[in-house]
Design brief:
heterodimer, A: mainly alpha, 0% strand, B: 135 residues, 32% helix, globular
Chain lengths: 228, 135
């Protein structure tokens, strides 16, 4: 099922009956079932994989033990030959031959487990991908439906509170007016700030004895003296 | 995070990235959280949660507000602006044009708050820039 195309067809169809599903319920059930099946397959594959990997490790251990045993017996055979005991050497050689044939079988078992585990890993990976893909498609359907329902809730809320969505131009008008107001307030605040900082400058000048000075008792006395 | 969690976090915030919020839950088959960023009450952001996403949507205008002669130009402009516009994309729901942003359900409150603020700012800018296409 190509969900993308189904949703596309549905939304292009324009106005839909309230409650009408984007993708029919049966198709969703099939998709959900496919996800469940793929999840079951993946679970089984993972269990099998654990089992196979354990057996593979076991077989590899046996193979190593066998190899060690072959080397050990080769050592014995050489020692027997060194001592000139041909009969004993032959007996050891027979044992080595048996061990080698076992080794051959074990090697085959290890290879078979390895290839089985590779196949299972691939199966797990593919199932995982399939699940994710189906989940993505299901999420598209659910999101589309959720957004339609959310839009319905928002519209109903407007109706219930007896308000309506204002047009974009009206909204913009109000936003712009508020921004102008804000800028005006900002300018007014800046002007005020300037005035205050001007006052600050005058204070500094006064402190430095420049410009207008406060009347002090001394200056008043001096003025009176000059009049007398 | 549920709608209630997000609503609570927004109400507890005095200010986030310098923005203030006014939130209200709208009940319905799908619960929606209405978020007004600062004084932008004209462009509320609507947040809803699905299985896989947190969706934040702001409505722009209705089809009947579009100057039909400039419609195709408007659509092309919107499509071209989708990538430059940070975190949000243009969309259409029924006969309403919208701006939306989608977050993973695993997102934290900071991601949601940032998304909502940016979405609200993008909406005002888009309204102002695309006004010429409206009747």
């Amino acid at each position: 099922m190509n969900v993308f195309k189904k949703i596309m067809t549905a939304v292009r169809g324009g106005a839909r009956e309230a409650g009408e599903a984007i993708v029919d319920a049966n198709a969703i059930r099939i998709l959900e079932q496919e996800i469940k099946d793929a999840e079951n397959h993946m679970e089984k594959a993972k269990r099998d994989l654990t089992d196979v990997m354990a057996k593979q490790m076991q077989a590899e251990r046996e193979l190593r033990r066998n190899n060690d045993s072959i080397s050990e017996h080769e050592g014995y055979a050489i020692k027997a030959l060194d001592k000139g005991d041909e009969a004993l050497a032959l007996e050891v050689a027979e044992k080595i031959a048996t061990l080698e044939s076992e080794k051959h079988e074990q090697q085959e078992v290890v290879t078979s487990f390895a290839s089985h585990s590779t196949r299972l890993k691939e199966l797990v990976r593919k199932s995982e991908r399939l699940i994710k893909d189906h989940q993505r498609q299901l999420s598209m359907v659910k999101t589309t439906e959720s957004v339609q329902k959310a839009t319905a809730a928002i519209t109903d809320n407007f109706a219930a509170t007896n308000s309506k969505m204002s047009s974009a131009k009206e909204s913009l008008e109000r936003i712009k007016k508020r921004q102008v107001n804000f800028e005006d307030r900002l300018k007014a605040a800046e002007a005020l700030e300037e005035e205050t900082s001007d006052k600050g400058l005058q204070d500094k000048l006064k402190a430095a004895g420049i410009g207008e000075q406060d009347a002090s008792a001394q200056s008043v006395l001096a003025r009176l003296k000059s009049k007398s | 995070m549920t709608i209630q969690d997000i609503a609570l976090r927004f109400s507890e915030q005095n200010s986030y990235e310098g923005a203030t919020f006014d939130v209200q839950i709208i009940p319905g088959e799908v619960e929606v959280l209405q978020i007004i960023v600062g004084e932008l009450e004209e462009v509320p952001v609507y947040l809803s949660i699905t299985d896989s996403q947190i969706l934040c949507i702001a409505y722009l205008w209705d089809e009947n507000e579009v100057d039909q002669e400039k419609r195709s130009d408007m659509l092309e402009t919107m499509l071209s602006m989708n990538i430059p516009m940070p975190l949000s994309s243009f969309a259409r729901i029924g006969d309403k044009y919208a701006i939306f942003g989608a977050l993973a359900v695993t997102s934290g409150f900071d991601d949601v708050a940032h998304e909502v603020i940016v979405l609200s700012e993008n909406t005002v800018e888009a309204l102002s820039a695309l006004e010429e296409f409206l009747v």
